[in-house]
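Let's practice the habit of predicting before peeking. Look at the sequence and jot down your guess about where helices and strands might fall. Then scroll down.
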Amino acid sequence: MPNQDRDAPHPQSSNYAWPDAEHRTLIGKRVPRVDGPAKVSGQAKYTYDVHRSGMLYGKVVRCPYAHARIVSIDTAAAEKAPGVKAIHVVQQPGTTIHWAGDDVVAIAAIDELAAEDASRLVKVKYEQLPHLVSDAEPPADAGGPAGPMSEHDIWDTTDLMADEQVAADVDEAWGQLSRNRCSAGSVKKVRNAERYR
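Done guessing? Here is the structure:
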């Protein structure tokens, strides 16, 4: 059944014509930017130009390794540095870092230079852990001595068990996969197994 409202032509659509050039207010006209004069004269204010009273500047000490365990953190020298107002340990010793650039310690100081100087005084000891970076399929021994779990290993154990056991086996398989850095295909299969939970 045709919709009369939808199929009927709009009364103004067929009759509409653009205004002639001398009556147009925006199309084809030069429109000055509101912030143009301030920007070209150097008077525009940006976030970097804002200096409030009592404002602090932050600096973050980041992990330089893709996979590491934090052994120790020493912030004593940074705490005594001039201008430092606060130090916050984001990742405690014993924490495992899983990517380079992860936050470890945050520093707040009265100015940017003081924060940067204090960040250099923070001493963090790391235990580097093995990691794999690859655009293609990982090498056969990527998971270490035991090797990655195969799809066969995962499905053989779960197919024979009752539904109540499947969730526990999937959790165990996830743990095994994270320890062995399994290939992306096997990870996908375990993710698919989670729907049975």
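How did you do? The longest helix spans residues 163-180.
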